[in-house]
Every structure is written in C-alpha cells, then in structure tokens.
TrEMBL record:
It comes from Menopon gallinae (poultry shaft louse). Keywords: Membrane, Redox-active center, Signal, Transmembrane, Transmembrane helix. InterPro entries: Selenoprotein_Rdx-typ, Selenoprotein_T, Thioredoxin-like_sf. The keyword Signal applies. Pfam families: Rdx. GO terms for molecular function: thioredoxin-disulfide reductase (NADPH) activity. This is SelT-like protein.
C-alpha cells in the first residue's frame, strides 16, 4: 500500500502528460489542416466568386472565439461573403525556441520521474535536483506550468489581422485593438462599394 501511495502521483502525472501531448499534436495537426483548406490563390474577378474576408488571429491569446463570433455575424449580415480564419504564425525564431523548450521540458520531466541521477553533471544545482527527485509530483507540476507559460509567451502574437480579397483592411498589431462590429461593417461596405459589388444585407445584425 505504501508503495502504491508513492507511485500514484507519478502515474497520475504520466497520464496528464500523455493527454497533454496528444492534445498538443492534435491541435497542431488541425491548425495545419485548416491552413491548407483554402490556399492563397488569386482567382481573379469572377461573377461566380463571392468576396472573401480573411481573419488571421492569435490562437494562444484566445482570439479564436472572437473570430467565430465575427464569422457568424458577418455570414448572417453578408451571406455572399466567404469568411476564412487562420492562425497567425509566430516568428520563426520564437517558434523554434518554443519547440526546443517543449522538448527540453519533457526531457527534464522524464528524468525526474525516472529518478535519473544527474548530480555529477550539474554541480551547484545538485541540491535542487535532489529536491526535485524527492518531490516528483510538485517539481514536475512546477516545471510543467512554468515552461507552458514561457511557451505561450513565445508563440503569442496578439494578432487579429483582417483582409478583404487579400487587401489588408485592419491590423490589431498596428491599431492595438480588435475592431468593433460597426467599424467592421463600415469597412466591408466601403470595400464592396469600391469594388462595385452590392449584396443584400441584414441591417439588424450586430455582434
């Protein structure tokens, strides 16, 4: 019974890490698929092709829900407009650092859970490592949370970039905010007038 009490936290944390890795890779696959669903191909003017509103958003900032709300209200107010959403990619340098930190995190966690003796290699940090081995659950949880916060900061872009038929019409990176629904409706109306297209709209639709 005593042995089970000792290894129970390790088993629970192992399941937690397994599900976290699964969710991470599934979200990455879904993001890649969504980015490949509609390629950036210029079809040229056509009476059969409706205008496209593309929104690139920061996933780690929680802007996916904002995109879904805007996409819903725009689709109802402008039925002929195709609304496309994609994740705004982090810079290559930050993305690489986040991936390296991700691998380093799970390497350290694996060493702690397995009880690897790294004291001959880490010098002054040997006492800290001994504490981690003695308190596996708490040390793993602390390392996991801290590394996750750093990874989130590295891949966070704060972006909510809007383009109409590949023409940028709003940038949160430049303005510092997401447009209000009336502002976005005005932008869309101006773009439609500029391109000489008119569609039936529902003026009562608001976010």
């Amino acid at each position: 019974m005593a042995d089970f009490v000792k290894i129970a936290p390790v088993i629970v944390f192992g399941f937690f890490m397994a599900f976290t890795i699964k969710d991470l890779f599934l979200s990455q696959i879904n993001s890649d698929v969504s980015n490949k669903e509609i390629p950036n191909v210029n079809l040229g003017p056509s009476k059969f092709a409706g205008p496209t509103l593309t929104i690139l958003y920061c996933h780690s900032c929680g802007y996916k829900s904002a995109f879904e709300q805007y996409a819903d209200v725009i689709s109802k107010k402008y039925p002929e407009i195709v609304v496309v959403g994609r994740v705004y990619p982090a810079s290559g340098y930050n993305s690489l650092l986040a991936k390296m930190l991700f691998l380093f995190k799970f390497l350290i966690l694996a060493c702690i859970i397995s009880g690897a003796n790294l004291t001959p290699y880490i010098g002054r940090l040997s006492s800290a490592w001994s504490w981690c081995i003695s308190n596996k659950f708490y040390s793993c949880a602390m390392i996991f949370l801290i590394c996750n916060m750093i990874e989130g900061h590295l891949i966070s872009t704060g972006a909510f970039e809007i383009s109409f038929n590949d023409v940028p019409v709003w940038s949160k990176l430049e303005t510092g905010r997401i447009p209000q629904p009336p502002e976005l409706f005005q932008i869309i109306d101006n773009q439609l007038r500029f391109q000489g297209k008119t569609f039936e709209t529902n003026p009562e639709m608001t976010l």
